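Contributing: when you submit paired examples, paste them exactly as shown. First protein:
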Amino acid sequence: MSKAMRNNIIEKTELIEKEFNLTAMPTHRRVTDLMKVGLIQREKAGEKVKLTPLGIYFIKQIKELRNEVVHNMSNLI
């Protein structure tokens, strides 16, 4: 995942498709799924996708979990 993709909160789905080498259909499904659970929002199809406060919190939790796993793995080695 590119640094721009990780650091930006707002992305157009076309950038997501390009970044992950997806066609429009899987991207649309993923965006719809993320909207349904409240992690992202956008006004209408084709508009910019924004993280919701819940999405921001979720990403923070994933990063903390990743750091904890790395720390624990380094202690095992």
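Second protein:
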Amino acid sequence: MTRDVLRALGRRWYIVVTGLLMTVALALGAYHITPPNYTASGLILLLPSKTQIGPGGNPFLALSDLDQPAGILVAYFSGASAQADVKAQYRTAQYTVQISSSARGPIIEVDVTDKTSAGTLGALDYITSQIPEELHRLQAAVAAPANAIITSMPLTIDGKAKADYSGTIRMVITATLIGLLVTGVVTFAVDGLLASRRARRQAKAEKEGAAAAAAHAPAPPAPPTPHRTPWRRPAAGRQPPPADAHDAHDAQEPAASHEPGAGSGPGAAHEPAAAHEPATARDRSAEMVSQLSGRVPADTGREH
């Protein structure tokens, strides 16, 4: 089967070459239509208030009680109002704000994706700058004391966006597969169509050639008419005697052989001619001679 496929591709190489060129063009078009996305991320750490730290305390030792404020901030930036605010500044940017799963503590992770590197970094800076402002606004809304205000600090902020080619690669692979599939289908369809047309044309030519040869060929001779010999009715003297005559002949034959003049009867003249007849006719003649021989003495006695 592989050999048949290769032969079909070889016979229709011009379709294969055209299909491959179109596949390359389709892949390039998919690459330009779906450019790579750019991603950047940042981590924001919440810090406890002065009351929680105490005089001379270490803020990092009092982070266990800040998971709830971090969850409130994540819920706010995941809401529709915060997303509309970001969309107003960066229309094509997409972002997610969540508590980091890579470390324990009140660490907020911000991931931004945009079509350009500048748009990605601008959206990341905007969101990370909004986190401390929204944190202060929420605490002011509940009239939190100044010594109980929770603050934040950036841990890491990407200064360079990373290109993500995963979507582009998927589109290029899809376009390539579609191009190869269409090329194969068209190649085998055209090859099958042309092969069937060639077979029909060849069959038609053979049929026409056979018809022409039959038209120019001499007519076969007529079969000979069988000759039949007409049937002839045998003469009256040649008919075989009936069955009772045969019985009488068998009874009279020993007596007739000793009577005088038996060999000089009228039937003696028929014996030479009967020798030249076929076996059946000769037998019949012999029977008739025997009958005549048996009758001659009786007729002779009557004359005397």
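If you have annotations for the second protein, write them as plain sentences, like these:
The first strand starts at residue 37 and ends at 47.
The chain has ten helices and five strands.
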